[in-house]
Automatic annotation (TrEMBL), chains A, B:
The lineage of its organism: Bacteria, Bacillati, Actinomycetota, Actinomycetes, Streptosporangiales. Residues 21-69 form the Helix-turn-helix domain. Gene3D superfamilies: 1.10.1660.10. Pfam families: HTH_17. This is BldC family transcriptional regulator. It comes from the Bacteria. NCBIfam families: HTH_BldC.
Length: 71, 71
DNA sequence: TCGAAGTAGGGTAATTAGGGGC
DNA sequence: TCTGTCCTAATTACCCTACTTC
């Protein structure tokens, strides 16, 4: 998986689509669940996630949308 | 470790590998956090950084990529 | 030289991870 | 099995002002 860090810190994939990272709370609002549930989804592999150097979880907006659309 | 700062903000090592320097905002967007948080990571030693003569922080793209892939 | 944007500090409130129990 | 809630410690976001960069 190749990605490019853009001039503004954006995250660009091979397809040229600019992506951004969402917090657990933001993802929780999308699905109407508790942020803790989103965290559990990460541990069980139900949703892809990225960890900050300190260990907190972030989620790619494109993947969240894909799950919402019947991933 | 000897290195040369290029005209476009590039960073060239002895191995000839060009490494771009990223601003706190760019790194912040890449990890989905506040730029202030990236600055904090520098002080706590979670991410290697380079300081400009005036004291501002910059980060090597290769280091950021390494951290994103699990440090 | 001017204005807009970004950054470094500090201080405080909010969020998160993790475990445990329901 | 899955989820929401309670707890603590750690981490982060947002507020401000002054300085730097473009």
């Amino acid at each position: 998986m190749t990605s490019i860090i853009g001039p503004n810190g954006t995250f660009t994939t091979e397809t040229g689509v600019t992506d951004r990272l969402l917090t657990p709370t933001e993802v929780a609002r999308f699905f109407g669940v508790d942020p803790k549930t989103v965290t559990r989804w990460s541990r069980t592999g139900r949703i892809p996630s990225v960890r900050t150097p300190s260990g907190q979880l972030r989620y790619r907006e494109s993947e969240v949308r894909a799950l919402l659309n019947g991933g």
